[in-house]
Amino acid sequence: MKKKFLVGMIAAGALLTLAACGSNDASSSSSSSKNLSGKIIAGGSTALQPLAQQSSTEFMAKNPSVQVTVQGGGSGVGLTQVAAGSFQIGNSDIFAEEKSGIDASAITDHKVAVVGFAPIVNAKLDVKNLTSQQLQDVFTGKVTNWKEVGGSDQKITVIGRTEGSGTRVNFDQFALGGATEVKGPTQDASGSVVQMVGQTPGAISYVALSYVETSKEIKSVSIDGVAPTEKNVVTNDYKVWSYEHMYTNSKRETAADKAFIKYVANNEKDIKKLGYIPISDMKVERDAEGNITQK
Fold it and tell me: Which of 94, 162, 193, 222 could anchor a disulfide with 98, C-beta 3.0 to 4.6 Å?
């Protein structure tokens, strides 16, 4: 009986020791994030801005000693400023290799999500689909009235994006086949584009899918009969999409920077809720040259 009692006591002691170690490890793991501190400016892509903004609010609540400021300005601004050290994180819809004047080897790429880009028109316009050629003709100014592409007799107003826009780079490359957009009114922020298209009869532009549902005054347009949806993006049936990148300066990257980026990339709830696609859901991969490979 004494032996059984002794064995029982030893076993119980071992379990208590393991539990204590586990508790200490959990506490250590939990407190490590609480010890993060610093200031982060994450700026650039307005397509990524809603996800970065929502994630920053949640991240700061969990890490009160870290201050995260999310700005827009366009992918070009994000890449330029993170390379210069003015931003801790440069948000971009394009690879750094696609931006002239940027030393891609000096900044580190972190892909956090995928986003599709859709042509959008004023909601009152009776156009639901355009062929690739029709889309190119509209945005290059070859076609100037909607009746020429199956719509009503109404003037087309093309609203473009500024030169530094990653959304523009992707749309011109994958939707317009590299064609040059007609000169006209431009906007540098996705929210402003939605508002302007919604207020302008006969208007057309393009935004990230994360903005399509933000206004009832606009609607998306299919290309060659393929709708700009998550289901079609993940298989590359709908080809107008890109990665959302969060670049860091390789020489200045901090623990707080890396923790915030990791939080954004793992924030699947908000990624899906806000109209983005988790990278893990993609059936294909795309490189900086635009080449597609199956996963």
Answer: 94
Tokens found for residue 170: 């992707």
Are 219 and 121 in contact, with CB atoms under 8 Å apart? yes
pLDDT, residue 17, reads 38
The pLDDT tens digits of the residues spanning 176-192 come to 999 999 999 999 889 99
Whole-model pTM?
Answer: 0.84
Q: Which amino acid is at 70?
A: V
Q: Give the C-alpha separation, 196 to 218, whole Å.
A: 10
| Total tally of structural domains belonging to the chain | 2
Domain assignment of residue 56, yes or no: yes
Name the residue among 240, 236, 235 with its Cα closest to residue 209.
240
Residue pair 72/52 in contact by the 8 Å Cβ criterion: no
SS3 78: helix
* pLDDT tier for residue 34 given thresholds of 50, 70 and 90: low
Q: Is 83 helix (H, G, I), strand (E, B) or coil?
A: helix
Q: Which residues contact 260 (CB under 8 A, 6 or more apart)?
A: 40, 42, 55, 56, 59, 66, 68, 89
pLDDT in tens, 82-107: 999 999 999 999 999 999 999 999 99
Based on the domain organization, do 224 and 265 belong to the same domain? no
